[in-house]
Amino acid sequence: GEDVEQSLFLSVREGDSSVINCTYTDSSSTYLYWYKQEPGAGLQLLTYIFSNMDMKQDQRLTVLLNKKDKHLSLRIADTQTGDSAIYFCAENPQGGKLIFGQGTELSVKP
Amino acid sequence: EAGVAQSPRYKIIEKRQSVAFWCNPISGHATLYWYQQILGQGPKLLIQFQNNGVVDDSQLPKDRFSAERLKGVDSTLKIQPAKLEDSAVYLCASSFYAAEQFFGPGTRLTVL
Q1: Is the minimum CB–CB distance between A49 and chain B shorter than 8 Å?
Q2: Residues A2, A22: contact at Cβ < 8 Å?
Q3: Quick check: B53 contacting A, CB < 8 Å?
Q4: Alpha carbon A21 to chain centroid, angstroms
Q5: Burial bucket for residue A9 (CB in 10 Å: 0-12, 13-18, 19+)
């Protein structure tokens, strides 16, 4: 089946690292994604990882993929108040449509 | 490069009325998607177009929803008649490579 699970809330202090976790079910997904959604806005593609990779780093963002456990994480280093948003994990089991989790609301406190 | 454009940004209608949303994808993107995002949930695909052909409409409630992409560029999504449970944000996305979908700002629909 197609299902993506995320924890709903995460609160961190400015300057700390944030780690947002996600589990997915479909091992046929070619890519796994992280999108960011700010209030009243659409979804911004943050990063994505090819399914045969374990890790991808892009500036303050690090994505880790454990394909055996179907676990994906997003680490944001030196979290800033501007990082406050909802973060969505997504898989694409059929190479086209995206299956999204419910989203994790990240709150960054000064 | 201009992003995905959508209009209107907000719409309020009474139940049983009809409504239409418009999307203009990023230039050159052959694939266009419509997603429905209910408050507190992640987006769910309604329909996917490749040029002007439908690739996937398995989750589209066809008794009330319709979509078209006549010239393989712009697309419209229509709801007729609307129900209370159709209140949501309707997101359009487009892609050139299947790996990268870019989303528009969405249309927030409220059905009273």
Answers
A1: no
A2: no
A3: no
A4: 7
A5: exposed
**Amino acid at residue number B22:** W
List beta partners, residue A13: A109
Whose tokens are 């399914």? That residue is A51
Cα gap B33→B54, rounded to integer Å: 10
Indicate the pairing of strand A99-100 with strand A43-50. unpaired
Of B55, B101, B108, nearest to A98 by CB-CB distance is: B101
pLDDT, one tens digit per residue, over A45-60 is: 999 999 899 999 999 9
Q: How open is the CA angle A56-A89-A105, to the nearest 5 degrees?
A: 110
Mean pLDDT of all residues in chain A? Answer: 93
State how far the Cα of A108 lies from the Cα of A85, in Å rounded to an integer. Answer: 9
Collapsing DSSP to helix, strand or coil, A66 comes out as strand
For A75-91, the pLDDT digits (tens) are: 999 999 999 999 999 99
